[in-house]
Amino acid sequence: xxxxxxxxxxxxxxxxxxxxxxxxxxxxxxxxxxxxxxxxxxxxxxxxxxxxxxxxxxxxxxxxxxxxxxxxxxxxxxxxxxxxxxxxxxxxxxxxxxxxxxxxxxxxxxxxxxxxxxxxxxxxxxxxxxxxxxxxxxxxxxxxxxxxxxxxxxxxxxxxxxxxxxxxxxxxxxxxxxxxxxxxxxxxxxxxxxxxxxxxxxxxxxxxxxxxxxxxxxxxxxxxxxxxxxxxxxxxxxxxxxxxxxxxxxxxxxxxxxxxxxxxxxxxxxxxxxxxxxxxxxxxxxxxxxxxxxxxxxxxxxxxxxxxxxxxxxxxxxxxxxxxxxxxxxxxxxxxxxxxxxxxxxxxxxxxxxxxxxxxxxxxxxxxxxxxxxxxxxxxxxxxxxxxxxxxxxxxxxxxxxxxxxxxxxxxxxxxxxxxxxxxxxxxxxxxxxxxxxxxxxxxxxxxxxxxxxxxxxxxxxxxxxxxxxxxxxxxxx
Length: 478
Hints:
Helix content: 25-40%
Number of strands: 23
Low-confidence stretches: none
Shape: globular
CATH topology of the largest domain: FAD/NAD(P)-binding domain
Distance between the termini: 90 Å
CATH superfamily of the largest domain: FAD/NAD(P)-binding domain
Structural class: alpha/beta
Strand content: 25-35%
Radius of gyration: 25 Å
Mean pLDDT: 95
CATH architecture of the largest domain: 3-Layer(bba) Sandwich
Number of domains: 3
């Protein structure tokens, strides 16, 4: 017997939960399938547990710095971080309890836990049951990439999917990969008393970000005690006496060794396309993910794909956005379809200081428009009274505009960068000239005032225009 639905959503992560919710809100008979448990990477091994860990680490760091805020203690206080991972697991269990099958079943969504496999262009099989749908939405997410390096498969390495299940903090850790995941977790464990070393093949950590803001972040990390090896790659792993010895090769072929108790692999992620039997439903895919058009439609006109499986940006907020588009395009006539638009995708790395971005880096802007066609404006956090009171003066707001003054890139390194950049995201998305932000009344004292201070720079430039100065002179009271 074939069970029939209007929409079947495959994958119960950020994209899948949003897609199923949007579909049932449109009165579609909806089925949600996941092979493990609802919540996906964000709930169980990504956003939520990592942010809980980062918060614990930030509190520990703040406590260590208490005397900087005039808070002395009458006796020595020692931070014991042994139970921090238990706390992290408790947080994700609480969040996960809001995303159980019962919660979604109560809303009218059929939830199936099992491994789906397409049998034809409009049917799949899961747990021995054949399911048919008018439309399918595939959002099976991604998984950590584990490189083929001699000896790595022989050791008990960690990824973001397993690190939060540790029962105790290790004494030392080597992190392979200096991207957002690797750097966030490296700093968190460092602040909790673990000796951490980061190995990055590129010349800089966070190599996709604007070098100027990354330099400030890296300096802070090194000051805290993070051991960073850039321009080197791991070529061999050997386990000995409770430690893993890692051989590193630099660009001239020289080999050096480092050692650590645990190894965290954080070199990137790959889409989950295995096991779906996409050939049976005529959906084209590659190691980069599922092929989709501008409407997130696959090579099978009745199947759409979203989230990490079909997007160049692997973020939960992008997954939710693309899921919305998939439901809209799957359920309505083409007249009401909407194209995906990645022109204004923001993101943040939640280190301390945070690093946030939307748009082009300075070099990307130069390459696209030419150096004489862009303007770059900067404001140091030390210009903010709030940053001074909070002792977070280490930071920078860097904005890039075109000749018309429209924001084409915004980069912030500093406290609350992920919050501050939201205003610049709005300005960029709605094409509001940067100088206009200088005329808005910002609350004092806030870190967001740095936007106003930076926006004042192009406003001052415009006031120096000879014609405008002449007009102002005429309008002035004598």
